[in-house]
Write a structure and sequence with these properties.
1% strand, rod-shaped, single chain, mainly alpha, 326 residues, 2 domains
Amino acid sequence: MSNFYFHFYRKILAKDGGLLNRTRLRILFACIITFIALTAILTVNYLFSTRNFLLYRIVFFFLVFVSALCLFLSNKPWRYAAHFFLSSVTMLIWTNVLLVRQSLYVINIQYCLLVIASGYYILGSRDGLRYSVAAIIPVLGDIIMNDFLKFSIPSRLVNLNYTGYGITVCMNFFLILYIHNLFFKSLTKFKKREALSIRNLELAVVHSKEQALAKTNFLNTMSHEIRTPLNAIVGMSNLLLSGAQLTEQKEDLKVLNFSAQNLMATVNDIIDFNNLDNGKVLLDSKPFNLFTIVSNVCGTFKEEATQKALSFHCIIDERLTDVVVS
């Protein structure tokens, strides 16, 4: 049976990969198991010592905590089991105050500490506050009535079993220590993971900057290398255009010169893009002739269209011949 429960317990922990939620599940499981063991021991103790209302009450709470464990191991959200468990412990405090003749200050305060710690660690601040208030009210009321008002609650008819009292105090102290130790061990582990993640992130940032710098240097180097033959092409095309040439060659030379200058502008844009991080880019506004730009672009694709037996014509309004755009 224990292997069966622990199998489902490990399965539940495997469902939730978050460190914080796994810690909450461990705390909840430890609380439920401890209270099942405590109520089982008290049941045996009361069975052989004082067969009074305490026996029936502890059997009832034993069944309640077993139900909480079944709920925890079921497919229901684990928060349901947490609410069920904390409500049960709060009810245990109220029954101690209302039914047991002797004042159980130590045990009730221990239960309050368990409810406060479990409520805040497992469910968070809002629900933790609710359960804490519900657990503290009967304890404070018991202290005020007994120590200040000297008033005895009429429903207190059951005498305390001191063997059960000692067992309960010891197991409660053990559980309180375990809960806080588990939570702060998980908190330390979380801080270590956070520090490791920050270091890995810093290394990744440094690595990405190195890669970006290497890419920028490569593009700058290649751009400067490409500019050298391009300057020669532009220069030679300018020389050919300034010299004597046939009429059919002049248009081709203009297209060649335009394409070379356009490629040079693209290379310069790459260099400017790489200089963006250094803040060295300056915008340059130059006027251009719209007719010349359109004619050269059309001339660039004219030869390719001819090779593919496509009819390609560029018709420009003569009124745009001398239009300069700035």
